[in-house]
Amino acid sequence: MPQAATPATPVTFPPAFLWGAATSAYQIEGAVREDGRTPSIWDTFSHTPGKTAGGEHGDIAVDHYHRYRDDVAMMAELGLTAYRFSISWSRVQPTGRGPAVQVGLDFYRRLVDELLAHGIKPAVTLYHWDLPQELEDAGGWPERDTAYRFAEYAQIVGEALGDRVEQWITLNEPWCSAFLGYASGVHAPGRTDPEASLRAAHHLNLAHGLGTSALRAAMPARNSVALSLNSSVVRPLSPQDPADLAAVRKIDDLANGIFHGPILHGAYPESLLSATGSITDWSYVLDGDLRAIHQPLDALGLNYYTPCLVSAAGAGAAGPRTDGHGVSEHSPWPGADDVAFHQTPGERTEMGWTIDPTGLHELIMRYTREAPGLPLYITENGAACDDKPEPDGSVHDPERIAYLHGHLSAVRRAITDGADVRGYYLWSLMDNFEWAYGYEKRFGAVYVDYATLARTPKSSAHWYGQAARSGTLPPVNSD
Question: Region labeled Disordered — which residues (predicted)?
Answer without folding.
Answer: 320-342
